[in-house]
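Researcher: Following up on the earlier apo prediction. This time include the ligand. It's magnesium ion, with the SMILES given after the sequence.
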Amino acid sequence: MDARERHLRLLTQTIEAVNSTLDLEEVLAQVATGVAEALHGDACFVYLYDDRAGELILRATHGTAVDEMTTRPRMRPGEGITGLAAEERVPVMIASGANRDPRFKNFPNLTEDEYESILAVPILARGERLEGALNLRTRAPRDFTQDEMDLLLAIAAQVAQSIEHAKLYAEAQRRVHELEALARISEAVSEALYLEESLEAIVKTTMDALAATGAALVLEDGKVAWPEGKADVHAIRQPLRWRGRQIGELVADRSTPFTEAAEELLGSIAQQAAVALEHGRAVMRGVLAQEIHHRVKNNLQTVASLLRLQARASDNIDPRKALEDSVNRILAIAAVHDVLTERREDDVDLAELLGRLRAMLVQSVGAGREVQASFEPVLLAGQKATSLALVFSELLGNAIEHGGKHIDVTLVQEGEEIVLAVSDDGPGLKEEEPTGTGLSIVRALVRDELRGSFELTSQDGARAEVRFPAQ
Ligand SMILES: Nc1ncnc2c1ncn2[C@@H]1O[C@H](COP(=O)(O)OP(=O)(O)OP(=O)(O)O)[C@@H](O)[C@H]1O
Ligand SMILES: [Mg+2]
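Model: Understood. Below is the ligand-bound prediction.
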């Protein structure tokens, strides 16, 4: 087989190799071996140019292995003989004594000094952009022919193309990967019923997509929400932005450094997270607003029926007292509303509620009275709590108004029943079944709202007792 034929075959083989795979490592390994064999060289090294670092990095070898690939030999264009070919964009040949040439660059983990000759060519895409360089070595001195130089240049041009393709492919793969991650997030966010679920899905997808050891969302107040996995030596963070304002941060950790592409991906995920967070909050605000609206409406209805009851009462009412009573009743309703809105729960802790009402009443009308209170922590739904608050303020109001110096109030749960008792050491009841606006409110609420019973007895003062089911 003559040289021309051999060269032609090498070129065809290179093109085949280039077209058969999009995996750059594989192409470069095939090129190194193909070139060395066809041109009867002892070694062939292929370097790729990293334009961000501005360095040529050894990516494939034939003939001499690199001891430890973790520190790949790298050099700047212009450095060493291959670097010179890259910088000058022309083939550089040294027929003998290449290893003693002052331009020669030595790498501790790459033994090259056994080679007498070198032919280095640049790898140029479309004849202009530097993609790398490759060289062919022989142990014996060798004068490469013009033909051989041309062949190596032609191969380098093919390699340049395959590098471009592989880069495009890797970029496309990265995009697909990124889109898949984002699609998973959108899906999780749109399927999630609660904000917490969305944010959890975002943090989990972040870990998957970035092969991170840990990830977390950090909110404005610095609170770390939804941490997953664990922290590691390398960390990146991307802001969650909403309408130009930073509303949090998405953080990821890994044992290996994050690439620029990973950072970009985290940025896109953070964008989704910001939308999910704001959307979730808006929904929450809407739900909360509706709940509060509902409660306010109920309260206004209660106030209206209280006023109606009062208007129907007796003929000789003192308007000033009537107004004062109404104010106290409305304040009792307001106290329940306060507790409900502060806690953002549907149930009210009666101990807390009655404690507040007691303080309020003692302060406004209870001068000189000693009110002993003992409340068990019992939970009651909002609407019923409002009724009990009104009942309690009427009973305590009566004890203060009509009773003695000492007043005793207790709230206990007895099995399925809640028992509220207000007793005082005053003169007791003048008649068996006294009625006024206050007591008719109490009776109506206990019967219709609390579905319980009410008893007013007289023995060493008056004692009022309300019993109603806890449910
Ligand atoms: N703790 C008590 N000790 C003695 N008498 C009481 C006590 N509680 C209620 N009464 C009697 O029952 C009556 C009716 O009470 P009710 O609360 O309905 O009306 P009121 O307190 O007179 O006026 P208001 O409508 O402002 O409450 C009172 O006027 C009082 O005579
Ligand atoms: Mg009263």
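Model: Residues 3-170 form a domain with the Beta-Lactamase fold (CATH 3.30.450.40).
Researcher: Noted. I'll compare it with the apo version next.
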